[in-house]
């Protein structure tokens, strides 16, 4: 008989932001079970924040392994063997892999004699047990984000973890690498460890999930037990929303107008080409998405060359690229590039001020006129409706829509978004493509992006 690991009874919880709450949550997670949380508009994340010790319980009962939980700070939760793993899990590049597993555990180093041989032996034991192909003595800077997540899980298991929460981890894995994570989850389930998954790409975990928990209107709306019904989750959440499946404008597919040369994809040097108004999805099977993004944002260091309409443009700095109407945005950039010391209006107008100012500097008059223009904002949305804390990232999309770049490189913005946000981003990218911008998607969420992309770029097509 499976023993209870986590029990929530009529629980109302508050996230890190006091404005985000979940109400009347009833949930029972037992040994060897894996639940996948699905929601839109920052709902499943509230439960994850509570399990991280960042939120608080307003009412109801929370039990861990049969014990009533009175405090929910991180130290108490880890004492009850609850660990949260995400792409921001602590990791030190000055330590090797084995040291990262054992020296970053919650204990008192005053009472610990560091035994390098024991650390190596224990690391090799866990790597062999869970079939992880990493060298315990390897330098940490050689590891990918996916490797660090795997190591974070092993660190939790080595501390006797019984409930592991995975928060938005799929974005660190390519499509081929995803089997590393799902196979590890299967082994953990066999040992009686419970898994709670909160991810904006839930489809990646359908193969290991025993149940889907769907949040809607800040409550549990439905629990799906049959794996064959899992694909209905998105329809349940987004029922009634409509979006075009791609730009309706006819594209010139014969002569590429944008070309990025010198990208390293494994041992090969490749080029990515796109036509004006074309949305191109870069297949993550070709190369790790994060690696391609690092090269694009540091073109001079990586030897990249940008060609627009057959002419090579300066790419020594990001300012050079913007001057030549090459834009980039990423979820990794703080607030996706929103400047906190600037107004909402100036955040949108920033790259375009040269075009709207003129020699006599009628900046405010021109900016006021532009921000009232209906073409910029989604129907029914006003600038005052945008909250810098919750959805300030929308300003960045409006910024590039106004700037109208020749090419816009988008890195994992869709992957990091929830279902409602993805639909909104999709519409904005299609609008930009219809105005002639070539959009290059560096996204780990291939299933959703391929639905509105005009073409999928792979190494084999080079």
Automatic annotation (TrEMBL):
Q: Which PROSITE patterns match?
A: ABC_TRANSPORTER_2 (PS50893)
Molecular function via GO: ATP binding; ATP hydrolysis activity
Provide the species name.
Answer: Hungatella effluvii
Matching PANTHER family, A to Z?
A: CARBOHYDRATE TRANSPORT ATP-BINDING PROTEIN MG119-RELATED, SUGAR ABC TRANSPORTER ATP-BINDING PROTEIN
**Signal peptide segment:** none
Query: Looking at the record's lineage, which domain of life comes first?
Result: Bacteria
Q: Which UniProt keywords apply?
A: ATP-binding, Nucleotide-binding, Sugar transport, Transport
Q: Where is the ABC transporter domain?
A: 6-242
Q: What is this protein called?
A: ABC-type sugar transport system ATPase subunit
InterPro entries given for it? ABC_carbohydrate_import_ATPase, ABC_transporter-like_ATP-bd, P-loop_NTPase
